[in-house]
Amino acid sequence: MVELARESLHISVWDPVATSMNFLNEIAGRFPDAISLAAGRPWDGFHGPADLPRYLRVFEEHLAASGTSPEGIRSQLMQYGRTNGVLGELIARTLANDEGITADPEAIAVTTGCQEAMVIALRGLCARPGDVVLAVEPCYVGLSGAARLLGIEVVPVPEGPGGLDPAAVAEAARAVRAGGRVPKALYVVPNFSNPSGVSLPTAARRALLDVAEAEDLIVLEDDPYGLFGLDDRPRTSLKALDRGTRVVYLGSFAKSCFPGARVGYLVADQPVVARDGRRTLLAQELSAVKSMLTVNTSPVAQAVIGGLLVESGCSLRAAAREKTAFYRRGLRALLAALEEHFPDAAGRGIRWTAPSGGFFVVLEVPVPADEKLLELSAERYGVLWTPMRFFYADGGTHALRLSCSALEPGRIAEGVARLARLLAEVV
């Protein structure tokens, strides 16, 4: 009987940060009746199974109207497909309508969720052992976990109350070079970041692009929450401001549509020049990486999302008005519940962020917000949350992330009331 030492396996198997999501899923499975302020998934009520055949039909009609024969439609839905996908034109139109981003369809690769887009981009850009990626900290665990899987070092750049400081990025890049390594990319979520909820002001976005130019960085811009501000004020993406092809835009239909389709994409329009002078786009080169991961993104899943895009007139911002209103109510309910149930917060060493949109609020507490406290919270008080420690290389021990996306306002308020009873016991 073969026995394997756990520590002999790759670090991505047993590293605590990389396995944090499994821990949260395990806790949720053990306490199914607990109110989950941990889950960052969309609310279940926006779509149902009956939507799937409708979107497939709309996409089939779209293909037919575009001149695709019945045999071609059958092949496109049922066979292996183009590695970078078939939604480039529709995604390009959607980005133009919603974000003011001009994207060449050939620069768009459709991926199996945005997580695959991160893996592909990291693998393609970080080619040598000394290549590292800078990342805002606290950092989404999907990015840090993907880097661990690939053996790429992540150098954290601390986030301040106003978001990522461009000067801190420049300082981190120079420190990396001084240590004999090469900073290749910077990962940032400029709108309502996960987990902090912080957004970058427009002036900081422009300054960040200037730093990327000066320090020769590719910016990986992840924008899953940009549709869900508390107001309709436009928040210009880094990619829309980009004039030097410094930004690779990472997109997802998980929050704006639904995550079960597992469809994301990247926009990588950086020119790539071969030794023989041949010129291509980075997205086309990265297709070689994707072909070794998933061959191609499910044509059926692409068709479902394609039908949704066609039905929406290629404007998710317009189609998602109901979702935006729901998430606004949820975030306001969360902030109001914190005010109600922690009236003496300052005197007890408790405080929280007040983001201008998105799904998340960070609550700082004067006790360790660790797995032990989460177990007590789930078992005795029936409420789940996410330890902020999961989003740090070293830190976040006295804070927790609260999510308002998967619950209606009444359940959010009850969850905060339960959390207040927990903290009354331990603080």
SSE blueprint:
Blueprint: H1 11-14, H2 20-30, E1 35-36, H3 51-65, H4 70-78, H5 88-99, E2 108-111, H6 113-125, E3 131-137, H7 141-150, E4 153-160, E5 163-164, H8 166-178, E6 182-188, H9 202-215, E7 218-222, H10 238-241, E8 247-252, E9 264-267, E10 271-273, E11 279-281, H11 282-293, H12 299-311, H13 316-319, H14 321-341, E12 351-352, E13 360-364, H15 371-381, E14 383-384, E15 386-387, E16 399-403, H16 409-426
Parallel strand pairs: 1-14, 3-4, 3-6, 6-7, 7-8
Antiparallel strand pairs: 2-9, 4-5, 8-9, 10-11, 12-13, 13-16, 15-16
Helix pairs in contact: 3-12, 6-7, 6-11, 8-9, 14-16, 15-16
Overall number of strands: 16
Mean pLDDT across all residues, rounded?
95
Q: Report, as a whole number of angstroms, the end-to-end distance.
A: 49 Å
Report the structural category. alpha/beta
Helix content bin: 40-55%
Overall body shape? globular
Task: Give the spatial strand order of the biggest sheet.
Answer: 2-9-8-7-6-3-4-5
Radius of gyration: 22 Å
Please state roughly what percent of the residues sit in beta strands, choosing from under 5%, 5-15%, 15-25%, 25-35%, 35-45% or over 45%: 15-25%
Low-confidence region ranges: none
Instruction: Figure out the total of helices.
Output: 16
The major pleated sheet works out as:
8 strands, mixed
